[in-house]
Amino acid sequence: MRNNTALKVLFVSNAIYIFAALLLGPLYAVYVQRIGGGVLLVSISTAVFYISSTLFLLFMARWGDRVREKELMLVISYIIRGLCFLCYIFIENALFLILVQVAFGLAESLGTPTFGVLFSKHIDKKEEVMEFSDWALVSNLVMALGTILGGFVVSSLGFNFLFVSIATLCFISAFWILFTPRGDL
Known about the structure:
Residues 6-185 form the Major facilitator superfamily (MFS) profile domain. The chain is mainly alpha-helical and 185 residues long.
């Protein structure tokens, strides 16, 4: 990966997103309680995310390969995720939370397979295990860091600051991909 610009761009953009998402990670249940929900709403809203992601993935499986610039699907997924995190600031009821989780499911269905396709497309032959291991190492470390830092941010600055920060990082991930020359990705 030393000279693989495409993988570096993918690593950085997705590491920024994963870090951002894990800033909320385990605090999601606390957030849902703050908007008046309980354990059941945490479970239902999480299930809605997975179900909607699954349903959108069925559509992506048929449609996604027709898109020429798959990088744009990844960009769109980061933008939708950023907007969804901003929506958390305004959520006051369970219905709005559920609708945001559906949008997160859409973003997940756009982003996750696209990242996998782009990663696989640019992986160096005879270094596949090393490069997948490098990605696992990077993602695990940024998830751990995001989880810890998220608690500090919420404790000292609150959820709204956290959501704006996460959204900003999602948009940075999107623009990192968008403004990378296509020859490099």
